[in-house]
Amino acid sequence: MESQALITTEASSFREALAAGGVLMGLDLGTQTIGTAFCDAGWRFASPGKTLERGKFTADKAKLAELVADRTVIGLVIGLPFNMDGSEGPRAQASRAFARNLAPLGLPILLWDERWSSVSAERGLIDQDMSRAKRAERIDSAAAAVILQAAIDALAGGAI
């Protein structure tokens, strides 16, 4: 029997469901790719991981489960794409559905506001003087790192 995980938008509930520390994985869900990022066990910094090509959900889940096992991940942070006015549209509902489908992994899941994450990630890559082609390859994982960094800042600092 697979266990169901906590899925929340509240950092305090997510933190209570976690051990004192450990690696978290951030996800930026695109229509064609999934950007991944990982933080250190002390929740100080997030780094971009792999960008995965999306396919059927069962294949995507298997790839993510492998990354979870390889990195000993204790929780997931998934970008929740709110509209600029704070409302939720179809993309946010798709992210919530993706989280529900990942719940059988048994990890707590935090849905984190991802507004401006891609813009921030793109600016960071431009600041690194990265070519447009390289930016296109890395934007999703860079955005996942921005999302995860914002979440761990809130978790580690207690600002919720």
Report on this structure.
- The protein has five helices and six strands, in the order βαβββαβαβαα.
- It is of the alpha/beta class.
- The protein has a single domain, classed as YqgF/RNase H-like domain (Nucleotidyltransferase, domain 5, 2-Layer Sandwich), CATH 3.30.420.
- A six-stranded mixed beta sheet has the order 1-6-5-2-3-4, sandwiched between helices.
- α4 packs across α5.
- The longest helix is centred in the C-terminal third of the chain and has 26 residues, at 132-157.
- It is globular, with a radius of gyration of 15 Å.
- The mean pLDDT is 85.
- Helix residue percentage: 40-55%
Q: Beta-sheet strand percentage?
A: 15-25%
Oligomer description: single chain
Beta strand count: 6
CATH architecture: 2-Layer Sandwich
Write the layout of secondary structure elements.
Elements: E1 7-8, H1 11-17, E2 23-29, E3 33-39, E4 46-53, H2 57-71, E5 73-80, H3 90-102, E6 109-113, H4 117-127, H5 132-157
Parallel strand pairs: 1-6, 2-5, 5-6
Antiparallel strand pairs: 2-3, 3-4
Short description:
The chain is an alpha/beta fold. The chain contains five helices and six strands.
List keywords for this structure.
single chain; 160 residues; alpha/beta; Nucleotidyltransferase, domain 5; 45% helix; 23% strand
